[in-house]
Write a structure and sequence with these properties.
The structure is a single chain. Helix content is about 25%, strand content about 25%. The chain has about 280 residues and is of the alpha/beta class. The chain has two domains: about 190 residues, P-loop containing nucleotide triphosphate hydrolases (Rossmann fold, 3-Layer(aba) Sandwich), CATH 3.40.50.300; about 35 residues, no CATH class. The strands form three sheets. Strands 5-4-6-7-3-8-9-10-11 form a nine-stranded mixed β-sheet, sandwiched between helices. The protein has a two-stranded antiparallel ribbon with strand order 1-2. A two-stranded antiparallel sheet has the order 12-13.
């Protein structure tokens, strides 16, 4: 008996190895992020179409899922067709969705109360939809998520569940489910909108340059929003985290460039007072 079991295990291992080495293995259709770091990390080269995905916020945004809603809208904005958006509360801000490319004319809103999962499953049977988004308070069980995943696979319509909870540490958010990918989004300070701060405009050239180098990196402004994008689970892949700029008007993200692998630019020479002239001059 032990010899038979060993033979079976060896055969299974060899089959799995052949599948892993197969270069013509088919991938599901996917919505590509256009960011190599993300697309290469995901098994399908992007967010799989015709599958169930989950997105949620963190911290204070766990209750409102504002970043997660913009993420979902930006993804579906790049597909053709209407989007069924299933609500538990009437607090969706359509102009914000339009700002990431999902125009209100494409939205079909359904207030479902506690029947969000049922309405989502029904919507996923209609092949003419680009996607179905459901805002869910409470649990997403394995059984319910498997039904949504099966419905999405059958119709080819992409499903996104936006998890909302009044507590950021709600244990229901950590329970396993059948979503192909599970995302968490955290809002981060945005970059300075201008290379030169307005209050430096009246300074002399030397002093202004010195102050700009020293202060600009520490001055968060009203530039494009930034998110910490965490992939908590990915079927066939590994968890990962990226810092990205939020969706633009076409629904695309942008990877925040890391500091280049080189020495920082030297600071300008110190400023000294010239007694023979009015104003500041550089030392040396």
């Amino acid at each position: 008996m032990p010899t038979t079991q060993t033979h079976v295990l060896t055969d299974l291992r060899s089959r799995i190895a052949r599948i892993a080495r197969d270069p013509v293995r088919r991938h599901a259709p996917a919505i590509r992020f256009g960011i190599q770091a993300l697309d290469r990390h995901l098994p399908d080269g992007g967010l799989a179409i015709g599958a169930l995905h989950e997105a949620a916020g963190t911290g204070p945004d766990t209750e409102h899922a504002a970043a997660a809603a913009l993420f979902a809208a930006g993804v579906l904005a790049r597909l053709r067709g209407p989007v069924l958006w299933v609500l538990t509360r009437d607090d969706l801000f359509a102009p914000a969705l339009a700002g990431v490319g999902l125009h209100p004319d494409r939205l079909i809103l359904a207030e479902a109360g506690k029947q969000v999962l049922s309405v989502m499953e029904e919507g996923l049977r209609h092949r003419g939809l680009a996607g179905v988004v459901g805002e869910l308070d409470g649990r997403l069980t394995l059984t319910a998520s498997r039904r949504l995943q099966l419905a999405a696979e059958t119709s080819g319509v992409t499903a996104i569940v936006l998890r909302r909870a009044r507590r950021h540490d709600d244990p229901a958010l950590a329970e396993p489910n059948a979503a192909v990918t599970r995302w968490r989004l955290t809002a981060l300070p945005s970059a300075p909108p201008l290379a030169q701060a307005p209050h430096l405009a009246g300074m002399g050239a030397g002093m202004r340059a010195g102050a700009q180098v020293l202060r600009a990196p520490d001055m968060p402004g009203l530039g494009r929003a930034r998110w910490r994008l965490e992939l908590l689970r990915c079927r066939g892949g590994e968890p990962a985290t990226w810092i990205v700029e939020a969706c633009d008007a076409t629904g695309h993200l942008a990877l925040v460039a890391e500091l280049p692998d080189r020495s920082a630019a030297p600071l300008p020479p110190p400023l000294t007072r010239d007694r023979r002239a009015v104003g500041w001059r550089t030392a040396g």
